[in-house]
Every structure is written in structure tokens, then in C-alpha cells.
# Entry
Amino acid sequence: MNADDLGYDPGITRGLLQALREGVVSSATLLVNAPDSEAAARQARGLAIGLHLNLDRGAPVAPGFPREWRTGDGGLDGARVAALPADVVEAEALAQLERLERLLGQAATHLDVHKHLHRHPRVLEGVARVARRAGLPVRSIDAEMRGALRARGVATNDHFVGESGEAAYWTPERFAEALASLPAEGVTEWMCHPGHLPGLVTTRYAAQREVERATFVDARARESLEQAGVRPTDFRILHTAGLTRA
# Structure
């Protein structure tokens, strides 16, 4: 049960960490080039934290990130990311991973990508190179991506659920429905976005985060998991589960 966007904003960080420490959320992924990255990393030390690779906005971390792939103010350009060369993605992913380890003082548990931008082939290739070298699992959102990652020797989850939209995704009702239809075997990633209202950033997914946070800290969520026989874990299970085979 992975919470995205740690470090995006102090309010988001605060609510997300509550869902991790008091609720049923079992891991999170950190943005390392966002307004609250450094403070969030300090607060999250010792928890299961992976990299939320950000190629959409903010300043690139790799010192040699090409000028031609930046916006006018020198930032990352999410609108053009599909055309980024795999080598550029690889260098930026490696730089962001190294920054995470410096900020956290520990290794990342896994890697995923803000807004699922690794659905683009060149981005996926660059991400897979770094993940394979670092021995890190990568989130897959569908069977095609799952097969592509495993073909490159990268471990990944067997199933995936979660989304964000106009309405809060993980309401208590949808949480119960997902539990009832959970696959009987394999590792399922539940992507979620718990948090408090952001105070520094503008995002379309704002008040919805409060709903998700309330869902996951409610005692009934833990009871539902226990009744369903579901055990929340984190991506470190894939480090030793031997799931790198195609």
C-alpha cells in the first residue's frame, strides 16, 4: 500500500506520514525536487521509502540535463517527456535516486514515476536501466509494462490498483470493494494519495487526499484487512522473492 507524493508539500507530507505511522499504508515514494523534499526525508527516516521519479515539473537534479529538454525557466517539461532520450532519463533517474539516498540516509526500497510517465517507452527504458543496476523493483501499472520490466530483468508487482481523479479514489466503500476483488495470489500494489490540504503547491488532487487519509487511518481499514487475510507489506519483499524472471 504505497502513498505517492511524499515531499510534494508540507501538508501532503504531514497527512501521508500519519497514514504510514497510524494507518494501514505500508510504504511511500519521495519526490526529491519538490518544495518539502528535505524536511519530508528527515521525518521519514527508518520507514519504507522509494523514489517517486519526477520528470514532470521542478528543477532537474542531474547537472548535465540538456537545455533543449527544459522549459523556458530551466525546469522539467512534462509535456515533452515522451520524446526524452533514454540516456537523459537514465542520468536524471540516477541523480534523483542518489539525492534520495543522501536525504534519507538509507537506500530506496523501489522506484515509481510521477504521473506514470514510464508508460512512454523511452522513459521506461531509462528507468529500467537504473533499476536493474541498483537492484530495485519498479511499479508496473498494467500487463504490458510488467512484461517489459521483467524482460529487462527488473522485479515488479504482479497486480496494480489505484488512481486519482475528480473524486477521492480510496473511499471506505471503494477500499472494501477492492479488498473483495483482490487477486488470491501474487503481490498487488495499492497506489494511494493520502495527505492534508497542500499549502504551497497547486494540484488538482487536493481535498481528495483528506478523504484517502481518513480512510486509511480509520480502525475499520485495519479490521477489513485482517478479515480478508491481507497482509500489507512493502517493495522490499520483491528484493528476495525472485520475481525478476520474465
Summary: Residues 62 and 95 are 5 Å apart (CA to CA).
